[in-house]
Amino acid sequence: MEQRLAAMLRYLAANDGASVARVCKQLGLARSELQRLLAALEDDAAAGGLGLVRRIEDAGRERLALTPRGREWLERHA
């Protein structure tokens, strides 16, 4: 699972604001798999997330982007 987390962070670093559907397609993930990854990575650190990724609602489309903390994490672990 750690490899998938890192792959998603790298993809978002190169494609900030990518749609959830695009992330699933590019990483070969089912939407349910992506949701499990997001549970660990999301911006809501108060709820136990790492605060590395945030969701953006854009005209009814859900997009994903790295937070500044996510970019720092990726730089340290690249």
TrEMBL record:
<dbReference type="InterPro" id="IPR036390">
    <property type="entry name" value="WH_DNA-bd_sf"/>
</dbReference>
<feature type="domain" description="HTH iclR-type">
    <location>
        <begin position="3"/>
        <end position="42"/>
    </location>
</feature>
<dbReference type="InterPro" id="IPR005471">
    <property type="entry name" value="Tscrpt_reg_IclR_N"/>
</dbReference>
<dbReference type="GO" id="GO:0006355">
    <property type="term" value="P:regulation of DNA-templated transcription"/>
</dbReference>
<protein>
    <recommendedName>
        <fullName>HTH iclR-type domain-containing protein</fullName>
    </recommendedName>
</protein>
<dbReference type="GO" id="GO:0003677">
    <property type="term" value="F:DNA binding"/>
</dbReference>
<dbReference type="Pfam" id="PF09339">
    <property type="entry name" value="HTH_IclR"/>
</dbReference>
<dbReference type="InterPro" id="IPR036388">
    <property type="entry name" value="WH-like_DNA-bd_sf"/>
</dbReference>
